[in-house]
# Entry
Amino acid sequence: MGGEHHGAWWTPDAPDLRVPGSLTRTADGWRLSLIGTLMVNSGGWDGLHLVPPHIIWGSCQGVPYTLLQCFLQSDVQGPDPSATHSASDQWTMTWRVEQLVRRGEITESTRFRAVAFELTGLPASWPLSGLRGPQARSGPYAAPDDVTIPLDDGAIRIGVRDSRRFGRRVKSLQEHVEVSADRRSGFTLDEVEKEIAGPLRALVAIGVDEPVSVFNLRLVPDDPLTQGGPPRFLEVDPHDGEEPEEPAPTMHAPLPLSPSLDGMPSFIPAWLELARRCSVPLDAVEPHRRPGSLQLQLLDVVNAAETLHRALHEELAEHPFAERVRRALDDAGGFNAAQRRDVRDAVTVFMGITLEKRLLALAEELGPEVCQWLFNGTVKPWAYVTARIRNALSHGFTAPDGVHEDPGALAGALHLTKAVITLRLLTEAGLPSGAVLTAQLDRHPGMRSLAK
# Structure
């Protein structure tokens, strides 16, 4: 959706107060420029940085719009050159909009019964086609069967769809891969992102080793039928034909770090559940186009590895030795209750699992074959050095050898830790480990370079 779109805009709380303005697409979202003022934050606020995000509704040429996550950027009173008194001065507002929904007025709690979307990179990783491979045959085109993944009260379907064009001289057919999901309890837009689209986007991005985006996202409301027409759907962040660019394929299907088609019905539900429990580690290893210094990237990834270990292993609720120390101090006397608690807490931390041990456990859980393939006998030095670098950067601990300032050590620790998190997430969801995984890693150019 490009160009400017002019219309009237209002807030759900004040539908009678409508303000003219234009909506323009930007590099990272949309900008809404209003000639007038929406009645928001009527209780007063001190500076734009304290204005919470808002929902704005609108209508452009009869088409309803919902703007979500709207942040006020400017609220300016400008004098009108023809005005005779200050009361005629014109107010303007500028909003930064992060998400747009076309063809409907919704709120954050609106539920939808079904959703469909596409992912860049998914066609490259999807081996089935009606135009090539074992499905290619003479005669009419027939798309391959969908892969259906059952959910608790619904299902996800991934399959090939076709777009056909017929002219007097030219007939064409183009394939694309679509993901659709439905469940009886429905989805909110936020649940679609966190529970379906986001985890699948991360999985495809890991598979193609490139950033991946969701596009052509459509939502089917609870009352989808229109009078005498097809089911009604709402469009999220529409591109209107300007589809995002597909990543250049560096590997051929089946991709080394992707589940097989036969294994998807069991892998995908486990992956979705794992993404819910381990959202921070998954976000840390998903390929992104985001800037950041090497030190900050390393801190994010190593902290995510620590989070992943805590999520996959039950932490001790009680620490008997620390309690024994506290009771011994109680019997010895000379310490008040606060001092005894401080000593007990210090002993608890000292006796706890160190970061080095957590990193080592994550790597060794991949199995001896994968550890040897990836680290070539250096898994313990990697865990030791990575923990020292993180502690020096995060806590200011001294590192006389300056390892936390060595770009080679930083880069090596960063990429190896990302690889361990990625492989640990995939194997936890059901990707085979051991010799099967090392055979797949041999086909992954990035992993081969890292291991060497």
About this structure: Residues 407-429 form the longest helix (23 residues). The mean pLDDT is 84.
